[in-house]
Amino acid sequence: MEMKTTTTNLEDETIKTLYNASLNGSVTTLNTLIQNNPLILHKVSLSLYNETPLHISSLLGHLQFCEILLQNKPSFANEVDSKGRCPLHLASAEGHTEVVKALLLANQDVCLVFDKDDMIPLHFAVIRGRMGVIKELINARPDSVRVLNDDGSVLHLCVLYNHLESLKLLLESVRVDKQLLLAKDREGNTVLHLAIKLKQIKNIKYLLLQPELRTSAITLNRSSIKTLELLESCPRDFISLKIEEMLTEVGVQRSTQMDYAPHMDSAVQHAPLPIISNQEQPSQFNQELPNGRRKMWENLWSKYLQFQGNWIEETRGTLMLVATVIATMTFQSTISPPGGVWQENTHTGGRNCTTYGICEAGTAVLAYAWPHEFIKFMTYNTTSFFSSLGVVLLLISGFPLKNKVMMWVLTMAMSVAVTFMALTFVFAQSLVTPYHIIQQDFSMAYPVVVAWGILLLVIGLIHTLRLVFWVKVRTKKKMQ
């Protein structure tokens, strides 16, 4: 009994030494163990370790150690650990290309071994962007590229982890596989939709070079998954605008745009890009216009007039802050007007004090010196103050800001608040400017005021046209 216990302890120590050697990649220790006990590798399966020595050496990239293990016990390549991962999973994740080659020589079928998360070795390589490993795995088992899991295809993983070079390599290998290119993840996103959702400009630009994906971007536009509509759930920023421009350039339209052509030939809708839908244009465009002018108006419509993003809702906090700041500034201008206030009652402190009988303490000094100009200053200041307070009131009222009428009202209110704040500044500047240089001040202010007026007119016109077009579209849909 004691001899049996001694033998068991000796075997346990030998197995422990084997695992320590796999950690260090000690080929000498491995060879010695095999010479002293040719069955040592076979007894690994009798131990309580979750992994084989090949798992450890593959993870750490000990190539020579792995080769000796595979020579003496090739079945190690098929063994899985407690998470269902074979040594190829670990070597692929770590990017040990030479170890991957050795494992594939032993058994190429392990390329299709799934772990508990339904991941094959190629998935690990793609997630980490291991280019060399990806090439070896594809060469060994090209069909591994077509394996799907909950995250979608390997193309989805490239986009999800933002590995453009891996995406290019994989697309070259599946260029004719339309089914894989249009595969969807658990949320119903194609690889292009996922790239748009994650706002990856480089990946989107490359994916749009694929005819199948460009066509799908248009055909799917009318389904429950819409490419451009994905951007509306994201904050409006430069990246979103850039992506929208890229999609528009290749012919992607919003569903509202496509509603204008309900009888369009389906062959035209699904044809390869570029697609030019000129069969039924909105009634706002003159059909007799030359092609160049018509295209210009179409671009104006699609990019500026028809766009109705949820920017008000997305910038609600910022809008509240700006309106509050404007209200604070205009309030401060009222209680501390240009030129200050009289500190005490006086009959002789100003040239007009005798006219009015007395200049009362706390009243504006310039109200006596320049009464008409001061009234204009206060009028502009008051208008800006109440316009900004109106914006604050609408924002805290709980009204749905996605309503197009509410968006127009808020835009106009903020435009009025900012404009009259600018006029308040101009008149405040004129009130405190000495008379002998007042003309120079006016000559400087006039061009700025004119430019501001033109900009305000353009903004008001565009937003008003948006509202009018929206009302016409809703009226048309109700009549149908």
TrEMBL record:
Its main location: membrane. ANK repeats lie at residues 83-110. The chain crosses the membrane at residues 377-396, 408-432, 444-469. It is a peripheral membrane protein; Multi-pass membrane protein. It holds the Pfam family Ank_2. One of its GO terms (cellular component) is plasma membrane. It is found in: Cell membrane; Membrane. InterPro entries: Ankyrin_rpt, Ankyrin_rpt-contain_sf, PGG_dom. SUPFAM superfamilies: Ankyrin repeat (SSF48403). It comes from the Eukaryota. Residues 310-431 form the PGG domain. Keywords: ANK repeat, Membrane, Repeat, Transmembrane, Transmembrane helix. This is PGG domain-containing protein. It comes from Vicia faba.
